[in-house]
Amino acid sequence: MRTQVGIIGAGPAGLLLSHLLHLRGIDSVVLETRTREQIESTIRAGVLEQGTMDLLTEAGVGARMKAEGALHHGFELAFEGKRRRIDLTGLTGHSITVYAQHEVIKDLVAARVAADGALRFGVTDTSLHGIDTDKPSIRYRHEGEECELQCDFVIGCDGSQGVSRASIPQALRKDYERVYPFGWFGILCEGPPSSDELVYARHERGFALVSTRSANVQRMYFQCDPKDSVDNWSDDRIWAELHARVDSHDGQHVVDGKIFQKNIVGMRSFVSATMQHGRLFLAGDAAHIVPPTGAKGMNLAVADVRVLTNALNAFYVENRTDLLDSYSQTALKRIWRAEHFSYWMTSMMHRIDGASPFEQQLQVAELEYVTTSRAAATAMAENYVGVAAV
Ligand code: PHB
């Protein structure tokens, strides 16, 4: 079987790339190890930058996001018993939309299926061949058969555990990594929102975040030991912890609901540079990971796809290779900006075991500054909405 662009992974990066290429008349096949049900139900983050919304709209998959997502013009930072608002729209002219990643996935899968796009689920034993030639191929097993997909380009959108990144020789690649000694305990619950806007809270017991999914489904998180197990956390214990960390801030009150999902995520910052080798290009989590604090993960994946779509289009339409050659360099500028922002926000908001009283006061001083100085608040806001200069 032959296609122009072989895409490994049906996350936001792989699906969006496939659909944008289709709209430009470029053929692709998407291979995914999981089932459609699995990718459509995996719970991830839910904040979309303006640029992400724009690209989804351009791809023709923005209707449900616009109808069901919630536009937020600011968020709150809670610390030292206070609540201070970051006025995203007032400071930057931009806002964000809260809309779950798996809803984006559902919209993209529906668009690919409606366009008769080639999408293979349940693929195993994927391997890449000839990526340093101009005839690369992907071998895999699907429904009991050995298959080979010949293509012009292979795009690795298969996340941090996928086969793609490992196909770039280690000697040509440098990995940058920071692992944080804490994780996030996430819950989904049925109930009304606790707040009109997201609340990021710094508390001596640890960080907490009040987010939302809809008028009757809420998303909340609290800092935990990454090795802890959800089985150790009864609903009562979870609510007690959220109340302790959030309610101490000036009139804020977490509204209890019926918890129907619990998970623990580890926190890591990671960048692979380069993001390309021969005819292989990496996008999204395959190349970089951010801790969830700045809500940048999916937005970075979408930003990679924007650069890659333009580069592939220039190749097929104008026979140009310059944009492909500079893909990694172009994408990495935005990636490193987001790496710094999410690391900075994580470091400012979390309880760090072993931190001295001096270091704790520095966190507070930084929070005071970003919530008092218009210049500092603007720097935070433009990073959050995704328009910081790179
Ligand atoms: C979420 O709603 O899942 C969410 C929101 C903001 C973050 C991270 C996650 O920074």
UniProtKB/TrEMBL annotation:
InterPro entries: FAD-bd, FAD/NAD-bd_sf, RIFMO-like. It is an enzyme of class 1 (oxidoreductase). Its EC number is 1.14.13.2. Keywords: FAD, Flavoprotein, Oxidoreductase. GO terms for molecular function: 4-hydroxybenzoate 3-monooxygenase activity; FAD binding. Residues 2-341 form the FAD-binding domain. It comes from the Bacteria. The keyword NAD does not apply. This is 4-hydroxybenzoate 3-monooxygenase.
